[in-house]
Amino acid sequence: MIVIRSVVFNIAFVLNNALWFIFALPTLLMPQKVFMTRVLHNWCRSNLWLHAVICNVRTEVRGRENIPAGGLMVASKHQSAWETFALTKEFPDPRYIVKRELMWIPLFGLYLSHSRQVAINRGDRIKAIASMNVAARQAVSEGGQLIIFPEGTRRSVDAEGQYKMGVAHLYETMQVPVVPVALNAGVVWPRRTFLKYPGTIIMEFLPVIPAGLSKEEFFHRMKDAVETNTQRLIQEARGKA
User: Fold this and answer.
1) Partner of 122 at 20 to 30 A CA spacing, among 172, 236, 238, 239?
2) How far apart are CA 195 and CA 218, in angstroms?
3) What pLDDT shows up at residue 241?
């Protein structure tokens, strides 16, 4: 049944995205706020709903009371594609740092541009860092929520965390509060496989880390919070699965 459910979900996922990309075209002529509330958030909800219903997955979001209003950074564990949809729908103006090349993808690039994602050219590392800092500061000054994955890529649930100092440099530059996020999505939606398993996904927004700390203190507080609580949620999910 896991294989059958996974195949059905992957087909439904592709079709759902194609339909959204086509029927949402008129909203590109509408204000960005309308696009976010009527398209982006509902698109994410539809993919999460398909995953939950087809693959027999329960979800739980904890700690929303820890999210302050206004511009901020979100530093999340990254185990699967699930959290990109789940995090996006939790914030009124979510922004991601994306490769410039993604802007060239037909339709998808238009939506990235209209939702004001932070696009950078990774070909020149020094210029990329400078442009990322400028764009990130602008996004947060506009009240956006900059969502980053400090490890830079998806990690399997049993892999040791490998955090990069780039998040600490952004923290020092932007001087905004940071909300760490722990989750266990990789237990039921593993990386690099089409299989989706039944179980419980928990995503938890942890207590905010205030602005103004040193880079080193912030980095260790963020890493410890995310890793410790992620391991707790993984064990909880495996107990419920």
Assistant:
1) 172
2) 36
3) 47
